[in-house]
Amino acid sequence: MLMLLFQAGDNFYAIDSAQVVEVIPIVTLRPLNHVPEYIAGVFNYRGNLVPVVDLCRLLHHTDCRSRFSTRIMMVYYPTSDGTRQWLGLMAERVTETLNRPDLDAKNTAQVSDVPYLGNLFMDEKGMIQQIHWQHLVSDDRSASLFIQESVEANGARRD
């Protein structure tokens, strides 16, 4: 399995790279009201308003710092109505991949019952925990988080 690595605090995490559509530089986000604190805001991505999860805030309780290596990993979030919406995952030090074809249950350990925290495994970098990003947003929150309207390049609403 090819995984995209990132850090939150001093800890390493990994996301299955096959599920990442694109990795983009950090952009200016517009904050949203009445959303969980780990939602950093939204931005215009190819004519769509995209919510961004701050993985450092979620996993380490501190905001992602603005570094050259801070990136937004773009994924398609499967909504409860069967559609897919863009979701941005912001993290620090998104700079490398790790290929672990041998990654399976015999060399990993489940250390949490939180659905988005996956197995923990050892690598030369130390301990790395998999993230199951599909479980980051609950179904009851997704309806209010994913904005159904597209926007034009200038930010105006489309009729």
Give a concise summary.
The protein has 159 residues and is mainly beta. The protein has helices spanning 55-60, 139-145; strands spanning 2-8, 11-16, 22-25, 39-45, 48-54, 71-78, 84-99, 108-109, 117-123, 126-131.
Describe this structure in words.
The chain is mainly beta. The protein has one domain: OB fold (Dihydrolipoamide Acetyltransferase, E2P). The protein is 8% helix and 44% strand. It contains 2 helices and 10 strands. Strands 1, 2, 3, 4, 5, 6, 7, 8, 9 and 10 form a 10-stranded mixed sheet that branches. A hairpin with a 2-residue loop joins strand 4 and strand 5.
Q: Which secondary structure elements does this structure contain, and how are they paired or packed?
A:
Elements: E1 2-8, E2 11-16, E3 22-25, E4 39-45, E5 48-54, H1 55-60, E6 71-78, E7 84-99, E8 108-109, E9 117-123, E10 126-131, H2 139-145
Parallel strand pairs: 2-10, 5-7
Antiparallel strand pairs: 1-2, 1-7, 3-6, 4-5, 6-7, 8-9, 9-10
CATH superfamily: CheA-289, Domain 4
How do the SSEs run, as a string of H and E? EEEEEHEEEEEH
Report the mean per-residue pLDDT as an integer.
81
Task: Show unreliable segments.
Answer: 148-159
What would the keywords be for this entry?
159 residues, mainly beta, OB fold (Dihydrolipoamide Acetyltransferase, E2P), 10-stranded mixed β-sheet, 8% helix
